[in-house]
Design a protein that fits this description.
- The protein is 17% helix and 30% strand.
- The protein is of the alpha+beta class and 203 residues long.
- Strand 8 and strand 9 form a beta hairpin.
- It is globular.
Length: 203
């Protein structure tokens, strides 16, 4: 069965950010789920043929399928979602190790949450991600990412490689050892969207 996968690339002032990390994730997805012999999409070539806006911050959505076919990128102005509270939700069997376009199971985890609330997903008590980001915890300038995660995030990988974040196993009860939880994804750096750990509702 042919399935759709996507990448969200930060497009800032006319150029993509972290493209090598996005390309590495595409290559991993195709090696695991691609049809035998299917070409691996080349994100740089795709973006070169469909240049985006020349200024400002935009979200660039690139969809491809397991046969290696790519749709034209879609650009949209980006404004971070405001999140005030995180609610811990146990989902031990949830699998989102690939950025499938079908996010039904992932979105169901946060069913019933308010507009400024987001799910902090747990697997058997271990902290993983929210529905649309990795997470990092801190007490100031230093950030700690949970060793467990749902999706291998591009910004997460970049920050760990650069030594700007460290990785540790974190249980739900460990979050109160920190002052802040920051949402981290291709569009968000640590500190951009922050929730106080006192505003994290534990199980």
């Amino acid at each position: 069965m042919c399935r759709l996968i996507f990448e969200t690339v930060k497009w800032a002032d006319g150029a993509p950010r972290l493209l090598p990390w996005h390309q590495a994730r595409v290559e991993r997805a195709m090696s695991l789920y691609g049809v035998a012999g299917a070409p691996v999409p080349d994100l740089a070539a795709v973006l070169a043929s469909c240049p985006g806006p020349g200024s400002g911050i935009h979200k660039c959505h690139i969809t491809y399928d397991t046969q290696g076919r790519v749709k034209a990128p879609v650009f949209a102005p980006y404004r971070p979602r405001r999140v005030k509270k995180l609610v811990c939700v146990e989902a031990p069997h949830l699998d989102y190790s690939c950025k499938w376009e079908d996010r039904t199971a992932l979105e169901a985890v946060g069913a019933g949450l308010g507009g400024d609330e987001e799910a902090l997903i747990l697997r058997n008590g271990l902290v993983t991600d929210t529905r649309y980001s990795n997470v990092a915890f801190g007490n100031g300038s230093h950030w700690v990412a949970p060793e467990t995660f749902l999706l291998p995030g591009t910004k997460r990988a970049f920050l760990l490689e650069r030594g700007r974040m460290e990785c540790r196993p974190l249980k739900a009860e460990d979050v109160k050892k920190f002052h802040f939880c920051s949402l981290v994804n291709a569009m968000l750096d640590p500190g951009d969207v922050v929730v106080r750990t006192e505003d994290i509702l534990l199980p």
